[in-house]
């Protein structure tokens, strides 16, 4: 390999190295419940080296076809997932349901649509899809994620937009599509399969780690988590990271963390106490040993402080 690399010009060298990465980063489905499969992206930022394989996708095989949840971060990844699905079942992919329209979950859509799948998402994604932000993001991705995202990669809307709770039945299996936004995004959707007690949770639940709250609407997010805590769940498949058999604990941890942020930062904002003081005096002892606490907590607290200031007005 080394000899080969030496003889290649710089551009081809890059492709050769990408080729190595590719072999290691292939989405290989693992089964998490009877007929339920997932592929797990890397916990990294999207890059040419990882082909934007940084999010999960799941699928359920029914007697009349396959339902896929989330479309992965590039068309090439989606093609590979389709090939993997064909090794498991001769049945076609009938539907792709999106938990939300973030780039790493949707850039693979065109491959599923070309394979004849119906794309289903919450109508609230329409605004983002038609926004300058989405167009700019795709433009940037065509450079940052080249060649996996290129001029041929496009934003794909849903074939079927849903406005409220919706039940989809395929092969006698029920899929409950539950809107839970605006939380992580306005269009958040979870998919619950009652007969398998399986939840596809998108980016609403973080497992054993401090979540990235970003600009999320944490008030709605808490309400959504409380809704999900009413479900009977054996397995939860998150948008990132491994599947969970302790969904209840994960849901509670994410909810309790958000509640704590809003309580401490909300008090500070109402009392017009400066952020630094409020942050220093808040009790983080329940969360400070969790992974990503150092990376995420301070910015989460600050964003929540701003949000609570805004809500107090
Ligand atoms: Zn995500």
Class by alpha and beta content: alpha/beta
Helix content: 25-40%
Q: For the CA atoms, what is the radius of gyration? A: 21 Å
Compute the separation of the termini in Å. 63 Å
What is the average per-residue confidence, as pLDDT, rounded to a whole number?
A: 90
Strand order of the largest sheet: 1-2-3-4-5-6-7
Q: Which ions and ligands are bound to the chains?
A: zinc ion
Strand-residue proportion: 15-25%
Oligomer: single chain
| Count of helical regions | 11
Topology, number of strands? 12
Task: Write structural notes for this entry.
This protein is α/β, with parallel strands linked by helices and 313 residues long. 40% of the residues lie in helices and 19% in strands. It is built from eleven helices and twelve strands. It has helices spanning 2-7, 10-24, 75-88, 103-106, 109-114, 125-129, 132-144, 218-228, 247-270, 275-281, 293-312; strands spanning 30-33, 36-39, 57-62, 65-69, 93-97, 118-122, 160-162, 166-170, 173-179, 189-193, 198-202, 235-238. The strands form two sheets. Strands 1-2-3-4-5-6-7 form a seven-stranded mixed beta sheet. The longest helix is centred in the C-terminal third of the chain and has 24 residues, at 247-270. The radius of gyration is 21 Å and the shape is globular. The relative contact order is 0.11. Mean pLDDT is 90; it is low at 1-24. The structure holds zinc ion (ZN).
